[in-house]
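Fig. S4 source data, part A: sequence.
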Amino acid sequence: MLGADVVHVEAIQRMDGGRSVGGAFAAWHRAWWECSLIFLSANSSKHGITLDLSDPPGIEIFESLIAGADAGPTQRRDPG
C-alpha cells in the first residue's frame, strides 16, 4: 500500500490472534481461520508464510528473511 514489501510470519504453534476475531463467515467455511475480516483487512497487502519455529529448517528460513529485511519482527513470541 505504501510501497513496502511486507512479509507476515506466523508460527504454526501459535496463530495470529487476529484470525480468531471478527469471523462473520466462519460458520460457512471449513478453514474458519481464513475468514476473519479483521485479520484480512490488516494483512491485505502482505505476503504471508507460516513456519515451524521449533524446527531448524523453519528457524533457518525465518533468519534468512530477517537477514534480507530493512526492519525486523514487531511481535516475536516464544513459539513454545
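Fig. S4 source data, part B ends here. The longest strand covers residues 7-11.
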